[in-house]
Amino acid sequence: MRHQRGGALLGLLGLLLPVLFPSLFSPLSHASPSALSEWNASKPRHLHLFKSAVERQSSDSGQNELWNPLSDQGLRPCIQTNNPSLPEKSQGYIQVFLDGGLNQQRMGICDAVAVAKILNATLVIPYLEVNPVWQDSSSFGEIFDVEHFIDVLKDDIRIVRDLPDDFSWSTREYYATAIRPTRIKTAPVHATVNWYLENVSPVLQSYEIAAIAPFSHRLTYDNLPMDIQRLRCKVNFEALSFVPHIRALGDALVNRLRYPSDYSRTTAGNYLREVTDVTAKEAGKFVVLHLRFDKDMAAHSACDFGGGKAEKLALAKYRQVIWQGRVLNSQFTDEELRSQGRCPLTPEEIGLLLAALGFDNSTRLYLASHKVVYGGEARISTLRKMFPLMEDKKSLTSAEERVQIKGKASLLAAVDYYVSMHSDIFISASPGNMHNALVGHRTYVNMKTIRPSMALLGQLFLNKNISWSEFQEAVIEGHKNRQGQIRLRKPKQSLYTYPAPDCMCGA
Questions:
Q1: Which of 20, 82, 276, 329 could form a disulfide with 302 if both were Cys (CB 3.0 to 4.6 A apart)?
Q2: Are 414 and 102 in contact (CB under 8 A)?
Q3: Run of H or E including 440
Q4: Contacts of 166 (CB under 8 A, 6+ apart)
Q5: Residue 145 C-alpha from the chain's centroid
């Protein structure tokens, strides 16, 4: 009987543990920090550098130079094409089904316009798949201004919101239930113009419609006509404008960052009054930091983030469950990974970089997408101590203002993208789709964007005896040419990250 009671108690404990500590038993819960990681991540890992950063004093001359806009680099946006008027007749309808997050879908939209142009087809407003991680079902029209999109591209391709009744059967559900002759599912990654002409054009000729899925990264960046390349840039940088309520909320956030003393919760929601009331005042400056440090990234990197054996074990277990051991970085030591620049920067480390560059505790810092930070507030707190004027969507807006974007990852990302494009300086803690998209867009309009040197920082952080002055000197020297200087696209590189020289030309 005693053994039975003990077994029952153990069984009850086994049932209650996942409820009481769900993060320890949910390896599939993306980007949610484990309890162990939060307990072990509260102390700064680079304590001597952290103390110096908190106590630092910046000179006015250094601050002024830091905030100076980029000088003219001799290149301007160049998206004019030599295309004649649209052909009298379209070859049929092109549908694309786009997966991924906001910025991956954005690239897919640009490619879809280019493919429609190549095939002389009519593009149906792209269908955005529900993101499996974020579970966001927002449609194209809930994120982007459809009227603006169609109007900007009216001389380039034909676009329709919906298929005519004769083709209303062509839906995502239709293609999910069986093999269909109108679906193109074999488009290779970075397919050429000839591939589309040889494989999709015949389907259009036979059925007057072709649905391409999957479609992410399904058009090459190389050996394309200049008009097609420029059309892709025209879509990305001119045609894709967010819906009015996203722009209004973004403007309010930018306004409150530039004029913090004028913002109060009592005026929240009156965007127009806020914008017009401050036009005569001197605007303050702010930095947008895209803090990309989620659980997936931390685990996949196989790096050590200072959380001790418990964190290492938790990340290793998570890595095994998600990727079944197929992680190349697992073969290397932490020192090797850091010296090669393969470790994502923690909130503490990106804060140390910003401090070394000359930003101080008077700097207004806007955090984009920080909710998914692995370790949560425990890890963000070190960054907040260095930059107490740190803000985000939640701190700058009321719940009422956020009601239209609440729980919708794509709309939240759209707001961050908009604010990032209106900041004085943008920096991303680690490479990724958001980083790449904003680097390209800000290059296109010649705005200052700091690209962290991951290899340099990895090596500096490995040196436990480095002084603050040595660290600062190395950081400043290593980032002189990483602040928005135009880099020309190389073969196979993304046009959306490197718009020059394809979409930029001499003044």
A1: 329
A2: yes
A3: helix 433-444
A4: none
A5: 20
